[in-house]
Amino acid sequence: MKQATIQNANGMILSAIDYGCAMTELTAPDRNGKLDSVILKYGDVSQYLENPVYLGSVVGRIAGRIRNAEIDGVTLTPSEAPHHIHGGDKGITARHWEMDADEQCIQFTYLSPDGEEGYPGNVFFKVLYELTDDNELIVTMTAETDQRTWVNLNHHNYFNLGGRPTIHDHELTLPADSVGVLDAESLPTGALRDVGGTPFDFRDGKPVREALVSGDEAIERASGLDHPFILKDEPIRLHEPVSGRTMTVETNQPVMVVYTGNFLSEETPVTLNGRQKHSAICLETQAFPDAPNHPDIATSIELKPGELYHSRTVYRFGVEQ
């Protein structure tokens, strides 16, 4: 594996490897200017070769689940039989990408061949990580195809802004009026739930703990948050009160899946810095999960020749005194 590291003028460091575009380090300053890691990472870079929790990686061709591993008569790899999850048995996460870096950016490219994991079309993927002197991490992902196919990528960083054992005290502000309803297999039912008066209401900001201990049946069934929120065109904000670190998220994607590391544990087959349930939070910007089966509520993820798939998300780090 190859690894690249870039640094901005303020000392923030971003490192990534060519395997699945996995981000292996991201530091940010606290209110006293102390730089520390804000993402979970493996103790050894070789552990990214066995990465069952998709730590720091790009996930696709389609992130999330596709019911019965079928779209429009096309059968995908049933990687969570009978369903398809996170792009298949390997997807684009478990692939070596071409990687180039300069002082400010790390760029990855990968040509996914026709038929890989059942998907039609040769698809050319490009991923760019940019670290600006305004303490912004900009993740840009694009795709082009030579046949009709489907693309819905996300970036799977596990954030913990304070280095504390859990993210219970992280305060999340999420401008979303509705959230997707999931069935017992974590697949969308096609229904949307108004967040008003529920534990899913983060519109005014609150500690993540309040949702996790709410006793809500949907949250209990998922062992935490793992739900698609329908975004408005407003920033999302995460704040860790002890360190003072903040992270503001802006995206061109219509949905954010909020996942609270529900299955991180001592039994995780590889060692994590943060090896327990709810030790981090993923803020996954993407299209609605299982979108082809819910055209009435989901933006299409179909990609045709001559079109460009384009996802751009900005993570802006700051502090609150």
UniProtKB/TrEMBL annotation:
<comment type="pathway">
    <text>Carbohydrate metabolism; hexose metabolism.</text>
</comment>
<dbReference type="InterPro" id="IPR015443">
    <property type="entry name" value="Aldose_1-epimerase"/>
</dbReference>
<keyword id="KW-0119">Carbohydrate metabolism</keyword>
<dbReference type="InterPro" id="IPR008183">
    <property type="entry name" value="Aldose_1/G6P_1-epimerase"/>
</dbReference>
<keyword id="KW-0413">Isomerase</keyword>
<dbReference type="InterPro" id="IPR047215">
    <property type="entry name" value="Galactose_mutarotase-like"/>
</dbReference>
<protein>
    <recommendedName>
        <fullName>Aldose 1-epimerase</fullName>
        <ecNumber>5.1.3.3</ecNumber>
    </recommendedName>
</protein>
<dbReference type="InterPro" id="IPR014718">
    <property type="entry name" value="GH-type_carb-bd"/>
</dbReference>
<comment type="similarity">
    <text>Belongs to the aldose epimerase family.</text>
</comment>
<dbReference type="Pfam" id="PF01263">
    <property type="entry name" value="Aldose_epim"/>
</dbReference>
<dbReference type="InterPro" id="IPR011013">
    <property type="entry name" value="Gal_mutarotase_sf_dom"/>
</dbReference>
